[in-house]
Amino acid sequence: MKKKADPKENTEQKKKTGCREKTGRKEKTEKQLKRAGSIKLFLKELPLLIMGSTLTALAVKYIYDPASLVTGGVTGLSIIARSVASRYFDVDFPLWLGSLVFNMPIFIFAITQSGIKNVLRTGLAWIILTAELYFLPERSFLPDDILLVAIYGSILMGTGSGLLLSARATSGGSDMLGEALHHKIRSVSVGRLIQIIDGFVVAIGLLTFGIEHTLYAIISVFIMGKVIDLVLHKGKSAKMATIISEKNEEIADEIMTSLNRGVTGLYGSGMYTRKDKKVIMCICSKKDLVYIKDIVKKHDPTAFFVVGNVDEAMGEGFLEDWD
Questions:
Q1: CATH number for the domain formed by residue range(s) 236-313
Q2: Contact 276, 267 (CB under 8 A)
Q3: In which residue ranges of the chain is CATH 3.30.70.120 found?
Q4: What average pLDDT does the segment 139-157 reach?
């Protein structure tokens, strides 16, 4: 005899099925939102990627290459190869071909070590850079002054590299190779590996172009690093005032009311006196710092006052829109 279905069991089964369907729909919606967010972020960062690649291409083709200045990386290696091919073999080895030939094995190696998703942005930047090196006409904009080349080339190249890093990409070359090699050589940091690779390229440049060009290249690398930091630091620079005083409450109240600056109280302990003390910390502008000094001196001339530099300050009162 056929067993009659239990209405309770049917109801519970429907509930379980409904829960699974809801969970499945929720996961699908989350994936779609995540994908849409990734696409939106990529489109937002795409102009930075294009601009960064363009500035890098302009620096290499119109400033560094005409002056035979090598600052490391695949672009520097391309400049060396172009000079050697022209000098010893009377062959034109264009920069775009050097970018293509030297970067291709690096990208293949990076994909095997990190996966294709982690190199997509850099791959796009590399394609744009190589294409621009191919299509841009041959020309030099700076006079025959290697110091000007080192200064203005580093400003242009540093700005381009900073924009690429802001878009979570690089122009390929030593940055990508260093990161990929780190998967094999875990005992050496990525930064140190990049320095070794760039140092090797600069050493080849020393043998090719001589000591004078190499010394100017070192100046250029130093300026470039400073420019990259300036581009990457989106927030406003500021000062951090740290105050230890018996009149903490009075000092904090006047800073908040007179300057409209937030003050944070941190609890510390004096290791010599073994007493607990409240430490005031205030992030302020350089202009505000002058008034804060006057306030501290007014309430407690014996206070311990420390001032530090803040590279970036983001939030209320500084850079508020920093997405």
A1: 3.30.70.120
A2: yes
A3: 236-313
A4: 83
C-beta atoms surrounding 93 within 10 Å: 16
What are the distances in angstroms from CA 317 to CA 236, 260, 262, 285? 10, 9, 9, 10
pLDDT digits (tens, 9 = 90+) for 203-215: 888 888 889 988 9
Q: Once rounded to an integer, what is the mean pLDDT over residues 258-273? A: 84
Q: What is the pLDDT of residues 41-72, one digit of tens each?
A: 778 888 989 999 999 999 999 999 888 888 88
